[in-house]
Amino acid sequence: MANDPQNSPDTSDIRPGEIAILLPEKFDASLYFIGRIRTPWRRRQDCPKNARESDALCTVEVDPRFAQALKDVETCSRLILLYWMDRVRRDLVIQVPRHYGKARGTYSLRSPVRPNPIALSVVLLNKVEGTTLSVTGLDCLDNTPLIDIKPYFASVDSVPDAVVEWHREAQETRNGS
Question: Can you name the CATH fold of 16-154+163-175?
Fold first, then answer.
């Protein structure tokens, strides 16, 4: 049944050089969305390329049943937010980022398009009011599901000498180095 559309990946909306695969029929796990993220962006092309480029004030609305889990979160200057990019395709293993124009493996990119579209941002916590957090430093669409909140510890979470070689080379090429 190689020509059966049910057994072939969706090739709409992919750039030249990108490769889509068939996903497994069943999921391996489940999770709880603990809230929603409110941002000014309604379309993917309006989102910042990465969270560090954004100074937009965003709101994290935590489900009230998890209110007690927010105890002491106001003592954190920065938080790690994990969220589910629920409006992206999940079947690309090779992607051509619009900013670089060269095919790369999905796991070497920060693109939201991935088998498990989990995103991570380190945000500045501006204010906590009940189950609502005011934060800066996000790059997701409005109403994105929130998976988890963790404190950011600069002492263990920062790795200043980390390198993504292909990105460094691309930057050097752009800068004429």
Answer: Elongation Factor Tu (Ef-tu); domain 3 (2.40.30)
